[in-house]
Design a protein that fits this description.
The chain is mainly α. It is 78% helix and 0% strand.
């Protein structure tokens, strides 16, 4: 059985149609994700509009060091994911797998760094509620949204990491060929999660320092 025929899965008649179906499916899914994150960011924008000074003061307490490191990690992971996608199109199995493993490592590095940041936030009393470190009440709105939005993003990234790990196993065991259209869906989702983080970095970490 040829590599191309192995790549075609039910119910698709050929690889081209399968790729179109995967593309349509992932973009339909991402459209719903855009609406979801759009609602969160709109809520952030509205509260920031009502409390600009408080949001600037609250944002100045974010750990820009961790935020910048995580931005670099995700931007680099987008590069390695792109390499994996291009290698899969060229049927370079080893390069595809190695690039995916690097992407996986960078994603895990992001979560580890975010965990350290969360730890510091808790230690500094930046969790809304009793004992909150900042005195201006509207600053709690910023930090409430910070925990919600960055937490949801971390969940999305964790899902992406899990998917990448599964794909690496499938490729290594030769269950599916590396040029399988699954790679295109994985790469699209990963780039979306990275793009969301770039927005969050600008809105959350830079607003108090601009």
């Amino acid at each position: 059985m040829s590599e191309v025929s192995r790549a075609v899965q039910e119910p698709w008649p050929d690889l081209a149609t399968q790729r179109e179906g995967v593309g349509l499916g992932i973009w339909a899914f991402l459209a719903s994700e855009v609406l979801f994150f759009g609602a969160l960011l709109t809520t952030y924008a509205v509260y920031r509009g009502f409390n600009p000074a408080a949001f600037r003061a609250a944002a100045s307490h974010t750990e820009i060091f961790y935020g910048t490191i995580n931005t670099v990690l995700l931007l680099t992971s987008s590069v390695t994911m792109t390499i994996a996608l291009r290698a899969s199109e060229a049927r370079l199995r080893a390069t595809t797998i190695n690039a995916l493993v690097l992407t996986l490592a960078l994603g895990l590095g992001f979560l580890a760094c975010k965990g350290l940041e969360y730890h510091d936030d808790v230690v500094q009393g930046l969790v809304p509620g009793a004992g909150f470190a900042l005195h201006d009440p509207p600053t709690q709105l910023f930090w409430m949204l910070y925990w919600i939005i960055t937490g949801i993003h971390a969940i999305h990234l964790s899902a992406g990491i899990l998917v990448v790990a599964v794909v690496v196993v499938l490729f290594r065991r030769d269950v599916i060929p590396v040029q399988d259209s699954t790679m295109e869906g994985v790469a699209t989702y990963w780039h979306f999660v990275d793009a969301v983080w770039i927005l969050l970095y600008a809105l959350i970490y830079l607003v108090g320092r601009a």
